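Service request form, structural biology core

Requester: graduate student, group of Dr. S.
Request type: structure prediction, single chain
Budget code: on file
Notes: please return the result as structure tokens.

Sequence provided:
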Amino acid sequence: MNKLGEKICKNKIKILVISCILIALSFVGMILTKVNYDILVYLPKNIETIKGQNILTDDFNMGSYSIAAIDNMKSKDILKLEEKIKEVDGVNEVASLYDVIGTTIPIEMLPDEIVEKVHAGESDLLIITFNDSTSNEKTINAVSKIREITDGLVNQGGMSSMVLDTMNLSKTEIAIYILIAVILCILVLELTFDSYIVPILVVQYYLI
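Core staff response, request fulfilled:
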């Protein structure tokens, strides 16, 4: 143990330089490493789910879709909002009831079995399709952009929205996980070291 301590003391500059290089590389790796939230990529290619998604993506440019609910918005404003959403990169098509009937035909003139599927009270449904698959980065960015454009006016549903919410939730909880890990490390060190001050100093050194 004494020999190891002597070697560390003699080569402290080298150890410090190597540690700094490794820390810098770890930060680069952390930035470049992306978390894959797409559970479909882990499924076999020959199952019906993957086959269907590939057909929709390759043949119809409709890799995924989202259902959005709009409350208390006039038909002409919904059509204007559709045009803004269509301009988002990654969006394929946006459709609502008013793309068919326009703004002049009253909803009351339509059959109830049709109206009740896309309109209820003061709420209307939008169907948004995307060019790429459910968890594709381009699709996730499109969902995020749509949320910015609509500014809380639209409530989006669908797998892509759920993936985006999962990503945001994970990012916000990382700090909590790190704090728990630090507390547990201090606890283990306190139980194993003879001094109660040394573990705190060690953890503080690595945090700095």
